[in-house]
Amino acid sequence: MNSNVLNAMTVDVEDFFHVSAFDGVISPDNWHEYKPRVDKNTRRLLELFDSHQVKATFFVLGWVAERYPELIQEIHQQGHEIASHGYAHRRASEQSPEVFKEDVLRSKNHLESLLGEEVIGYRAPSFSIGYTNEWAFQVLADLGFKYSSSTYPVKHDLYGTPDWPRFAYQRKENITEIPIPTHKVFGRQTPIGGGGYFRLYPYALTKFLVNSYLKKEQQPYSFYFHPWEIDEDQPRVEGASAKSNFRHYINLKKTYGKLDKLLHDFSWGTMKDVYNIPSA
To answer: Taking the model in full, what pTM does it have?
Structure first.
């Protein structure tokens, strides 16, 4: 076990009705029709992190921050890192440079006004910076971000840059990109970064893959998930495809227990601490 290696624990703070899997049946114009559950779920996570004395990076959706400022301040006061997940959970690959900048800046400004300090990290919804919109890195650098975690070097129908770097690297725009981890199994890059794959895999497999990654790659590991993934009682969204339903609802009742084990079996910190990101 590589329990002494410090790895990055991250949370994408959004609600169940924000996810990209439901874009076809839930419009942002209709978000007000759903009762938010993100505040309760995130506070439950804070208690879990506290029980393991773990500090994490919370990539906060601006929409959530505007409605739950006390939650964001509480996360910060407990010593966790606050980063941006944009404002409206629109894929960066579907935005123009102007719209992307407006969305990210709205989130950054609001978070900084709540915290009284600079927000230096960003993660694009659905890891949506890739081949068609590398310009997004320059926008982020111009806005003062020091790092991004917006790429996933796998093949996926919603995202993926399989031939891009697998480990944290400094880009020409003077911003550090921290890809979601993959592990090469039989020559194929297997997703091991969290999310739906964490819910799908048996925990023993996840533990094996993470340990193998740490041993083979000699790189820190980063993990991501969402507050709604510990919420087995969330409402079922009507009209979504069978694929979307499978991706979203698979093993929700098991996630909290798996997280508890993951937090115990490995050492965790924030993105800025694990990857030595300077604040200025």
So the answer is: 0.96
